[in-house]
Write a structure and sequence with these properties.
Blueprint: E1 18-21, H1 26-37, H2 45-48, E2 54-57, H3 59-69, H4 74-85, E3 98-99, H5 100-117, E4 126-133, E5 143-155, E6 160-170, E7 175-185, E8 192-196, E9 204-205, E10 210-213, H6 218-226, E11 233-234
Parallel strand pairs: 10-11
Antiparallel strand pairs: 1-2, 3-9, 4-5, 5-6, 6-7, 7-8, 8-10
Helix pairs in contact: 1-5, 3-4
The structure holds zinc ion (ZN).
């Protein structure tokens, strides 16, 4: 393989540079899913190419690029990085908070890596949808207890890691809140969970909306740190 070139300046990317993952778009997840489902024997790296949500950045552009990658998809992230490269102060254009949808897609993109982390040899993602019920203490006042839960999971017969998107509705029918939960269960390792519970009618969240049960796995710890999320609440 030839030396990768920086997506901003075209310089050769040496060991001090890196391939940087930006926030995935829904279409990017489809690309990842296709390559996870592909037979290993036919999915060699040369035919695969780089993921559409990742860009090589040289050492000079890496630090700034990592800041952009925490909050923007690759199109907007590289555009802003080029502005920053031209001397424009861009920090004010980066949101302090993360979108619930963005976080859900970050976690879904990571599921094949979670499968590897729990030692599963199956990295295909299973999708499921069901209705469920939350207690009054778990929903905003005036919301309905019936919730809709879309789940994506990986794993074998015993251990699994799952991402749940839980939609809570006002009695009028509008969405009151969207929670995102990720957790791991299995007989050979202690389980852990990370919940994001935004304020009512909010589509973005920060550290104050994150709660944790158990000790997140090394990969989950990396994700929380990368996106600047420090869980402030511990669940029993
Ligand atoms: Zn560069």
């Amino acid at each position: 393989m030839s030396t990768p070139r920086c997506a901003v300046c075209g310089a050769d990317v040496t060991d001090a540079g890196a391939l940087v993952d930006f926030l995935p778009r829904e279409a990017d997840l489809a690309w990842h899913a296709t390559w996870c489902d592909a037979d290993e024997s036919t999915a060699d790296d040369s035919s695969r190419g780089e993921p559409p949500d990742a860009a090589w950045l040289c050492a000079r552009h890496l630090e700034c690029g990592l800041v952009m990658a925490r909050r923007l998809d690759i199109g907007r992230g590289l555009a802003l990085l080029r502005e920053a490269d031209a001397g424009v102060e861009v920090r004010g254009q980066l949101a302090a908070t993360l979108g619930v949808d963005e976080w859900e897609r970050v976690l879904r993109r990571a599921l094949p890596d979670f499968a590897i982390e729990i030692g599963s040899d199956r990295v295909e993602i299973e999708e499921d949808w069901q209705t469920s019920y939350l207690e009054d203490s778990e929903i905003p006042a005036g919301a309905s207890n019936g919730v809709e839960c879309t789940s994506w999971s990986v794993g074998g017969d015993q251990s699994m890691v799952g991402v749940d998107r839980i939609a809570v509705y006002w009695r009028s029918g509008a969405v009151a809140r969207t929670d995102v939960h990720i957790g791991s269960v299995g007989p050979h390792a202690p389980g852990w969970s990370v919940w994001v519970t935004p304020d009512a009618d909010a589509t973005r969240f920060g550290s104050q909306h994150v709660s944790v049960h158990g000790e997140p796995s090394p990969l989950m710890g990396d994700l929380l740190r990368r996106y600047g999320l420090d869980a402030t609440r511990v669940r029993p």
